[in-house]
Structure formats: C-alpha cells, structure tokens
Amino acid sequence: MLHTILLPALMPSLSLAPAMPATPTEPAYAAALVEPPLAAGALSATATGTVPRRDDDSTFSYSYIEIGATRFDAEDIDDEADTYYGEVSFDLFNLVNLFVNYENLSIDVDNFDTDIWRLGVGVHFSTTEFLDLTADLAWLFSKIDSDTIDDDSNGTQVRIGARWMVLDAQAAALELFGRAIAINLDDSIYSDDSSTGFDAGARVHFLGSLSVAGSYTKIENDDAIGLGLRVSF
Fold first, then answer.
1. What H or E segment, with its residue span, contains residue 218?
2. Tell me, what's the pLDDT at 47?
3. Beta carbons within 8 Å of 196's beta carbon, 6+ residues apart
4. In the chain, what is the straight-line distance between the N-terminal and C-terminal CA atoms, in Å?
5. 4 domain residue, yes or no
6. H-helix or E-strand containing 164?
7. Which domain covers residue 98, as residue numbers?
8. Are 136 and 159 in contact (CB under 8 A)?
9. Other C-beta atoms within 10 Å of 26: how many?
10. How far apart are CA 143 and CA 149, in angstroms?
11. In the chain, how many domains are there?
C-alpha cells in the first residue's frame, strides 16, 4: 500500500520513468487483505458454544435460577426421603456470587418434615477458559417438625471444588463438577453435629441458557442422588 500513497507526490520526478505494470485497484487489493481476517472472526464468533459467557469470556455462569429434587437415604433413620429445592444465585464482579437456597425434606416415618434455608457467598477463579475453582460459605437454618421432634437449629456449610467444561459445542455442552463439603448443623438430619462429605455430577447445557444436572452426594454414611434444572442469565 505504501507505493500507492507516495506515487502521486513522486509523479513530477517520475514523469519520464517507464510505465509500471498495472496493479489491482486499491479497493480490490484492500478487500483481499481484509476479508480473510474478517471471515476468521466471523467463524470464531459463531463457534463460541452454547454456554452463556461472563463478561471476562469465562465459560461458566454464576447467575442462575435452579429447581430440583433428590432421593435422600439417611442411615440413622433407615428410610428414604424425598427432597425438593430451589436456588437463586447472582454473580458480582465476575468473582463473587451471592445465593439463597430453600430445601424441603420429608419422610413417611413419624411424619418427619424439615425446611432448610441456606444464605451464602461464593468465590470463583478461572484457571483456564474451561476450568474454574470454586468455594462458598453458607449460613444454614433448619426447622424440623415430626410426631416426635419439633426443633429449630442453625449452622454453617463450606464447599470447595471445581467446574470443568469437557465439551463446549454449538448444540450442547458437557460440564463435570465436584466439591468437598463440611457441615456444622445441630439437631440436623445428619448423623453428627459436624459432618463432612462430597458431591459430584455432570451438567448438560443446551439452548443457550438451559441446563440439566445429575448429582451424587455423600455426607458421612448418608447419600443422595439428585436431578436439577437450571436457567442461567
């Protein structure tokens, strides 16, 4: 392009110079230079996958509404319980998320029913575009009601883990996750006042903002299998 810019200024001194071979006009020449990068940019823009991106281009979203159910097997009660939950989370500064969770657990034995509320704050750090390290701390409040027990209690829950997007395609994306869990809740459904365990699962993302997850949770000798539907925004 340099010769096309300087050529008019050099015309007086080059008037006797031999004619230069014809070159493509500037618009066509410029288009040849510009079109490949633009085409590559368009390709990358359409291949960003199905998962909503945060402002920092991380793969994961921490703003969502989720509902789900679990089948809880409590060894001390020697029976299975049905659990239903809902959770809302809001991402702040692409680093911190605030969440509130409500869970109801019911067992046929003694008409056992408990409501558990969690109010917490989490942090998340992207090690790569497809791997986030996570941690959260929640305050817990539970209200237990049954034929033999009527009690309120509170405590804390700490979870540390990671989210790994193993597949991020146009049609669907597959995420694996896992967390270590520590709970301190007096008079709870757990076997001890202080309990530890873990959860792990897989989440399938589709239609941009929807996802479905299956999970397994183990707290001391008690375990649960869950299924949840999430809308991210």
1. strand 210-219
2. 41
3. 180, 181, 182, 183, 219, 220
4. 46
5. no
6. strand 150-168
7. 64-232
8. yes
9. 11
10. 10
11. 1
Question: What averages of pLDDT result for each successive group of 10 residues across the chain (233 residues)?
Answer: 40 43 47 42 42 67 98 74 95 97 89 93 96 97 86 93 94 97 74 85 95 96 95 96
The letter for the amino acid at 80 is E
187 in helix, strand or coil?
Answer: coil
What's the token pair of residue 216?
Answer: 């397994």
Asked if residue 1 belongs to a domain, the reply is: no
Tokens of 173: 């994306």
CA distances from 232 to 44, 184, 224 (A): 22, 30, 24
**Type of residue numbered 197:** G
Phi first, then psi: what are they for 44, rounded to 5°? -70, -30
Which residue is it, tokens 């949770």?
217
8 Å CB contact between 178 and 159: no
Which CATH number characterizes residue 111's domain?
A: 2.40.128.100
DSSP structure string for 95-117: TEEEEEEEEEEEETGGGEEEEEE
